[in-house]
Amino acid sequence: MQKDKSADSTSLLSKNVRIEGEIQGPENLHVEGHIKGAVVLAGDIFIGNTGIVEADIEAKNIIIQGEVTGNVKAHRQLEIHPTGKLIGDCSAASIDIKEGAVFEGRSNMIKSSPATGPASPLKDSRTSQNPKQSPS
Amino acid sequence: MASFGKKKKENKPERTQTTSSQNETSYFGKDLTIKGSVSGNGNVIILGKLDGKFNLRGRVKIAQPAKIKGEVRADVISVNGVVQGSLIAKERLHLDQTARIEGQMATPRLSISEGASFDGEVKMSDSSPKPSMAPAEGSAAIAQNKTAPAKE
Questions:
Q1: Which of A10, B88, B135, B150 has the fewest CB atoms within 10 Å, counting from its CB?
Q2: Does A9 touch chain B (CB under 8 A)?
Q3: ipTM value for the complex
Q4: Distance between CA atoms of A68 and B65, rounded to whole angstroms?
């Protein structure tokens, strides 16, 4: 049994707003805008109808109604709604793809190992892409 | 008691919460860290951390737990949090009591509440193309002499 400790705060990226870069934290995120970069959350991410994400995503639950290009990793569940589109590979403990949804890519099921505990925001699996930008 | 209609437990997956995008205010919670740039049209409230740039047409509110490193450009900026870098407001800029700023500010209208801390420099040229409004009313703005002639 996984602890249902949902993050209590939901951040919102509204339409017409664009983030380029990395986003991380133990929050839920609702995206109606545009993200390019990387997203690592311990909470859930909800990509609404107008949301466009060009990024690798890691989160507890991933719900896609908009468009995602990138590899996604859902520690619990990936949901693609009829309006949703995912171009990229996914790995998830559970997947739910509705009729009408678009998914192009590979899928890889995470074998449930609840012993690993809640999603930690930083997994070492993403050391490969670290842009290392130094603020000068 | 007549039960009017059974509780139909039809699980509706479509939670139509997308209508909430009516108000165009983005909200970044206190545990969210953003590295990079945020741009576009709309208002933003940030409580978390930003390492990078804001470039927005709209209002930006930097609430108390927020920490910004970098540059913030917007029409209206109000600060309760911590900023290291530059704040450039096209219309007006307000530092509230809990604001702590290190860096540059540029705005045509400035107000600073008692208790705010500000280390750096301000520029108050009226570079914003605003024909109707008088540049600095005594109430909020620290009126500087309008040195620069109006340039387009």
A1: B150
A2: yes
A3: 0.74
A4: 31
